[in-house]
């Protein structure tokens, strides 16, 4: 059974993530302990609320260093919701700019849509060759709740190509990214019923 | 590709049991909340809402326990409301496993609570629940013709319901749960006029509640502007199945999961 740590840095519905991962077949520990987070087979970085507050919490817990060290060793990390957003260069919320971890290029910005937050079950266009969405039929829906998202994906040529999955609410936005050991979803697999459980099993299967 | 309109069963919980009565009185026992929640999860409910209807301090602990047990077994979003008075109450519910918390009476008494909660926990988990009715004849009218009520719809406040929803949005809530106290329990359909009036003024998602009695009642609520539809007793007593409601909505061209 793969051992997974859900990183506790003061953000996110940790209990839901814990139980959904257990349900999907993982041995789960919720902790901010660096050794446990480094040694686990997989690390989940949750996150809700404001980008800057999440980033502050992550830095205070040393979560950025944990993510860096794990990825240096090709050890899997899964970001969820704001836990995905903070992996990008920066966030812009209500004119407050905050630096992210900078693993992926681009900014997290307010979606241009009639109704915000984008709240509910939406379809995604899975990237060809995706591991996370393997075996799922087109039209599978996942639960989203967010007002900010990555609206432009502009990697520079030097970077290893990532698998980018898109969704749409008012305009297209990045719903998931997979780059080797680093993967992330804007939606909440832990709240997405059977589809979410399948995605978590797909991720756990790679650990 | 569009976000699906959500169908949300609401479980009124009293001392750990599900109850729901006509117009919020004459409560009738209708089952174990965790069992019902799990059944609804299987039946493709898009979210669940628990409303703690008594909220006496002794029963409060039972509510946390029910939330905890439900969140352990059901992997769809869970909203909890009823008797939520402070950011500490919200914190406890979120820690027990709720994804969103709805505020009602306490926010009327102190609107800043909405702002504080949104700042601390994020807009995505703060729902403003508005129990509204038409202003009775002979009383001072509000701009929209609808007023906010308290005490399960029995007391009018004179506050314009639509203006209150707008204010909630400005104070940072992520969603409005609009309960028509006139329609609640009647099973004659949603209050479309109230939904339209509110939709015209707010840009956060709007959940319509009150009055559902037949599968054909749901599509008009969506066409009037609801992003989600909520019902209680018609689901618990098996009068309507969630799948039938979704089928009827799909037939009207509405995107459902």
From TrEMBL, chain A:
Q: Which GO MF term does the entry hold, naming one? A: glutaminase activity
- Decide whether keyword Amino-acid biosynthesis is in the record: yes
Q: Specify the superkingdom.
A: Bacteria
Pfam families reported for this sequence: GATase
- InterPro entries on file: Class_I_gatase-like, GATASE, Imidazole-glycPsynth_HisH
Might you report a single GO cellular component term?
Answer: cytoplasm
User: EC number(s) in its UniProt entry?
Assistant: 4.3.2.10, 3.5.1.2
Which CDD domains does this UniProt record tie to the protein?
GATase1_IGP_Synthase
The answer to whether keyword Nucleus applies is no
**Which catalysed reactions does the entry list for this protein?**
L-glutamine + H2O = L-glutamate + NH4(+); 5-[(5-phospho-1-deoxy-D-ribulos-1-ylimino)methylamino]-1-(5-phospho-beta-D-ribosyl)imidazole-4-carboxamide + L-glutamine = D-erythro-1-(imidazol-4-yl)glycerol 3-phosphate + 5-amino-1-(5-phospho-beta-D-ribosyl)imidazole-4-carboxamide + L-glutamate + H(+)
Q: What is its main location?
A: cytoplasm
Q: What keywords would UniProt list here? A: Amino-acid biosynthesis, Cytoplasm, Glutamine amidotransferase, Glycosyltransferase, Histidine biosynthesis, Hydrolase, Lyase, Transferase
Q: Active site located where?
A: 81 (nucleophile), 188, 190
Where in this chain does the record put each Glutamine amidotransferase domain?
Answer: 5-204
Specify the pathway.
Answer: Amino-acid biosynthesis; L-histidine biosynthesis; L-histidine from 5-phospho-alpha-D-ribose 1-diphosphate: step 5/9
* Location in the cell: Cytoplasm
Which N-terminal stretch is annotated as signal sequence?
Answer: none
Q: Which NCBIfam families match?
A: IMP_synth_hisH
What quaternary arrangement does the UniProt entry report? Heterodimer of HisH and HisF.
- Free-text function comment from the UniProt entry: IGPS catalyzes the conversion of PRFAR and glutamine to IGP, AICAR and glutamate. The HisH subunit catalyzes the hydrolysis of glutamine to glutamate and ammonia as part of the synthesis of IGP and AICAR. The resulting ammonia molecule is channeled to the active site of HisF.
Protein known as: Imidazole glycerol phosphate synthase subunit HisH
Q: Which organism is it from?
A: Halosaccharopolyspora lacisalsi
The gene coding this protein: hisH
Automatic annotation (TrEMBL), chain B:
Q: Does the keyword Glycoprotein apply?
A: no
Q: Which reaction does it catalyse?
A: 5-[(5-phospho-1-deoxy-D-ribulos-1-ylimino)methylamino]-1-(5-phospho-beta-D-ribosyl)imidazole-4-carboxamide + L-glutamine = D-erythro-1-(imidazol-4-yl)glycerol 3-phosphate + 5-amino-1-(5-phospho-beta-D-ribosyl)imidazole-4-carboxamide + L-glutamate + H(+)
Report the record's Gene Ontology biological process terms. L-histidine biosynthetic process
Q: Which residues form the active site?
A: 12, 131
Describe which pathway this protein belongs to, using the record's wording: Amino-acid biosynthesis; L-histidine biosynthesis; L-histidine from 5-phospho-alpha-D-ribose 1-diphosphate: step 5/9
User: What Enzyme Commission number(s) apply to this enzyme?
Assistant: 4.3.2.10
Which cellular compartments is it found in?
Answer: Cytoplasm
Q: Is Lyase a UniProt keyword of this protein?
A: yes
What Gene3D superfamilies is this protein classified in? Answer: Aldolase class I
Its annotated function is as follows: IGPS catalyzes the conversion of PRFAR and glutamine to IGP, AICAR and glutamate. The HisF subunit catalyzes the cyclization activity that produces IGP and AICAR from PRFAR using the ammonia provided by the HisH subunit.
Per the similarity annotation, which family is this? Belongs to the HisA/HisF family.
Protein's UniProt name? Imidazole glycerol phosphate synthase subunit HisF
- Organism name: Halosaccharopolyspora lacisalsi
Query: What gene is it encoded by?
Result: hisF
